[in-house]
Amino acid sequence: MFRQTMSVWASAIALGVGFAESAAAVDFKFQFENDLNGGGTVEGVIRGLSDEGISAATSVEITSNTSGFGLGEYVGDPLINSWTVSGGILTGFAFSSSGSRNTSPDVTDSTLFLNSSLLAGASFRAGLSDSPGSIVTGAPDVTTADIALTFPQDNGDTEPITGASVTTSIPEPTSALALLTVGAVVACGAWKTKAS
To answer: Which of 55, 51, 74 is nearest to 63 (CA)?
Structure first.
């Protein structure tokens, strides 16, 4: 009886500790020259990435474009949404969202492309097209320097900033459930002891 009670307590504590940890989300701003798709300077923000490893963004939004098109949210139904963060720095990414796959309120009349792989002499490529179904992803005469893709820290202000990322702690919703589970195990253990 004592071993069963201790086993239940140990399981409840392990469960509670495992669920009580917090996840960390990292947001990045981005900026690039849209040389692959007609010119202009494009700015935006990537939200909700895991602070370490590979994850999908919860939001990729264009906030500014000097050419005037494509503003808004692109994580509606992206073709690919994969981002790698290591040590708080964005090290790899592949994102493509075609407006023809999205539904309003997400952007439906433009296509956004961001990719860190090398193609036609350029890596860290990016483009924004005013077409909902097509985009130029690389060209022999466009280099990484021409695109000038950067990921400055997103600290929530409007001032120019430098750095790689900002990390925020987000408590997991299961933490409350874990605490309730521990409370239930304690109450059942006490009730079982009285019944014996």
So the answer is: 74
pLDDT digits (tens, 9 = 90+) for 56-92: 999 999 999 999 999 999 998 999 999 999 988 888 9
Domain tally for the chain?
2
Look up residue 175 and give its two tokens: 């933490």
Of the candidates 164, 170, 168, the one whose C-alpha atom is nearest the C-alpha of residue 85 is: 164
Rounded mean pLDDT of 13-21?
A: 42
Same domain, 183 and 194: yes
- Shared domain check, 5 and 61: no
What is the side-by-side strand order in the sheet with 41-50?
72-73, 59-65, 41-50, 22-33, 166-171
Output the average pLDDT for the chain. 74
d(CA 54, CA 49): 8
Q: Against a cut of 0.70, is the pTM above it?
A: no
**What's the domain range around 116?**
23-171
In DSSP terms, which residues pair with 31 in a beta bridge?
43, 150
Q: Where are the alpha helices (DSSP H) in 37-173?
A: 144-147
